[in-house]
Design goal:
With about 280 residues, this protein is of the alpha+beta class. The chain has ten helices and eight strands. It is globular, with a radius of gyration of 18 Å. The protein starts with a helix and ends with a helix.
């Protein structure tokens, strides 16, 4: 799991390539292009063909952003483009970048994501950091009146898992979802994902050299909302949830290299080098 300086340099370069693609897609979205053409813009800006990308890019406008691995890429331009979620990476010397950005008006999820990035350092248990994500997300739900209870009550009830069904992140390297995320000993013993968060791909205590993603999300997924029981349903602002459904969801994802006293954010460095935060 721990990467050499050379490997981290390769992933930093991959992030720079991906950042150029993300910026090109953001500019094209403002001009009113379809998902399909936005995908072509990404390929052109990165200089990589589809077979060279580390994974199939997600270009999701409006409610398509609530489909976690959306691949349709509509050819038609929507009548109203409310939001855009792009999850797209790049490769350099075989090493992957895995980057997500969402264009929305509110910055609450950006603040949440950057708070989590600031807490990444050697010695941190990623299971605890994933739990911290849901604590912070409960605050976002309360801040925007999506729940009628307090943030503490929303966190304790587990309602945040309806809006964030996937884990906080995963190891990154030659593979996008790099191996060893559940390994607990050098001999291969495993630490499974905790029961409330079965899709968490990383359950290790972070060590220097680990390279990983931090990708919290907020989604309005109708199938999950329908599963909410009567007691929890009473804590939701259902009118507001219904109004927000057409926006789909938000995901912000950075690639970080763990250091003893913090982490190097390869993705933010890449965007900054191109004049964007």
């Amino acid at each position: 799991a721990a990467k050499t300086d050379y490997e981290i340099a390769c992933m930093a370069r991959a992030n720079s390539i991906a950042a150029a693609g993300h910026l090109a897609v953001g500019a094209a979205f403002a001009e009113g292009e379809s998902e399909y053409l936005l995908h072509q813009r990404y390929l052109g800006a990165t200089g990589q063909c589809e077979s060279e990308l580390p994974y199939a890019s997600i270009i999701a406008i409006n409610n398509h952003a609530a489909i976690l691995h959306y691949q349709r890429r509509d050819r038609a331009v929507p009548a109203q483009a409310r939001s855009l979620l792009i999850d797209a990476g790049a490769r350099f010397n075989g090493y992957a970048a895995d980057v997500s950005r969402t264009r929305v008006s509110s910055h609450s999820m950006e603040t949440l994501q950057q708070t989590l990035c600031a807490e990444v350092r050697a010695g941190v248990d990623f299971v605890d950091l994933n739990e911290r994500t849901h604590e912070l997300l409960a605050g976002v739900l309360s801040e925007h009146d999506l729940v009628t209870c307090s943030a503490d009550e929303a966190y304790a009830s587990g309602i945040t898992r309806t809006f964030l069904p996937h884990g906080l992140g995963h190891l990154l390297g030659l593979q996008v979802h790099d191996v060893g995320g559940h390994q607990s000993t050098p001999t291969g013993d495993l630490r499974p994902a905790p029961e409330p968060h079965p899709f968490l791909r990383l359950t290790r205590v972070l060590e220097p050299g680990f390279t990983l993603t931090i990708e919290p999300g907020f989604y309005l997924i109708e199938s999950l909302l329908r599963r909410v029981g009567p007691e929890l349903r009473r804590t939701l602002n259902l009118d507001l949830v219904a109004r927000l459904l057409p926006y789909g969801g938000i995901r912000i994802e950075d690639n970080l290299a763990v250091e003893p006293s913090g982490a190097r954010n390869l993705t933010r460095e890449a965007f900054a080098s191109l004049g964007h935060g």
